[in-house]
Amino acid sequence: MKELQDPAAREVVAQVLDADPEGQSLLAEAGHWRTLAQQSASVATEKAAKERAARRGYEALQHRLDPRNVRTLRVAAASLAMAVVVAALVALDRIEFAGVLIGWMITAAAAAATAAWAGCAWLAALAVREERHGRLTAIAAGATSGGLLLAALHSVGPAALRWPGWDPVWLSILAVLVILALVTIATEIITRTEPVSLLLARRRWHRAQQDYQAAVRVQRSDAEGAVAAAQNWCSLVDVYATAYAASRADANGSAAGTTPSGNGHVTPDPWSGTPPM
Q: Can you give the pTM of this predicted structure?
């Protein structure tokens, strides 16, 4: 407790601690909550600094990896969309290879072709980001040539899928066109997807933000507890201070030989003996 300069205040506090059974408990409670409030305020300040640092790190990384803010597709949504595209590519590749292969070889060839299509999409996305138009044209030409070869293999195979009223050649070409469209969609998804490092940086920022908010809630709770405990202690001290002031006034009036005025109400005097002058 801070040393009081006023002798009367020291006397009042000493009397509260000595005479009142709740005095020491209330003072200890007030000191306890004050310490907690100081500690939680320090923690909140530290968390705020970490939250600002995490946010600045995320923004700096975003400006470096995505300066024009075009890669706005979240990783989770992009992963789901890519899963749908890959599943569709596998199904179409199985249809195409069903005309020339049998058994487990169809699945193996379809998986290999799907991996090749995904590679084409990834290379095309890199070409788009780097603005390499010649490389993009070469990738598109290669993908188209591969698709036409796949359509030709399917259309001439002995076990080609033949739907009533459909020419196998046109059916194969249609399947290849759908495959190329899916590869184009995959390229756009990869191009628009945010970098994983940016996702991790944003998660660090959000965790730091949540930690800061939790620290602020604790700080607010501790501050409210400190105020309540201080008010309880001050209320008790005020009672004794009022009685002490009344005792001094009565003592001064008796020494001067005057009769105190009032309405007859007597304030309880917790001070024993003659109050200190």
A: 0.67
